[in-house]
């Protein structure tokens, strides 16, 4: 059974991505009888099934070239689900105008519209409920260091 080197797999993955406008969020290798290589990618405009399939084929080819065709593993190339937290500053810009739920390092929680995203942090316009009225607070900036977790609030309007 092949022992997969994560660093080597990341090099192969970056090679497989090539000119496709995506970035790596995570690459894991399970330690089981049949190792599972899971790659989570995202892009400035999201990630489509065609990009996932192309990268998966390219990466699979590189793995087989290096580890041999008899290497036993499963490969999953995917994008983060809609309910997954945002983990990379490059994910935020495409969500400008959407509502985010933030959990801060100090334990407080904020929900509001994402107004701006920079490499340093995010600016949101928080909406709070006072009795039965919703009030919008002035925009506030939160650095990525202040954020423990950020999720897009999924709305079915």
UniProtKB/TrEMBL annotation:
Family designation: Belongs to the RimP family.
Subcellular location: Cytoplasm
InterPro entries, sorted: Ribosome_maturation_RimP, RimP_N, RimP_N_sf
Pfam families, per database record: RimP_N (PF02576)
Protein task: Required for maturation of 30S ribosomal subunits.
UniProt superkingdom: Bacteria
Predominant cellular place of this UniProt entry's protein: cytoplasm
Keyword annotations: Cytoplasm, Ribosome biogenesis
Annotated ranges, domain Ribosome maturation factor RimP N-terminal: 34-83
Organism per entry: Hymenobacter aranciens
Keyword Cytoplasm in record: yes
Name listed for the protein in its UniProt record: Ribosome maturation factor RimP
């Amino acid at each position: 059974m092949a022992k997969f080197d994560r660093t080597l797999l990341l090099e192969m993955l970056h090679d497989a991505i090539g000119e496709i406008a995506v970035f790596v969020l995570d690459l894991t290798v399970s330690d089981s009888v049949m190792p599972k290589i899971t790659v989570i990618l995202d892009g400035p405009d999201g990630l489509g099934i065609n990009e996932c399939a192309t990268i998966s084929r390219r990466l699979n080819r590189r793995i087989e070239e290096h580890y041999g065709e008899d290497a036993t593993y499963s490969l999953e190339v995917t994008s983060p689900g809609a309910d997954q937290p945002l983990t990379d500053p490059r994910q935020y810009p495409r969500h400008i105008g959407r509502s985010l739920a933030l959990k801060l390092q100090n334990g407080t929680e904020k929900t509001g519209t994402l107004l701006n995203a920079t490499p340093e942090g995010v600016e949101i316009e928080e909406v709070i409920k006072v009795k039965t009225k919703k009030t919008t607070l002035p925009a506030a900036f939160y650095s990525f260091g202040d954020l423990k977790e950020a999720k897009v609030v999924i709305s079915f309007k």
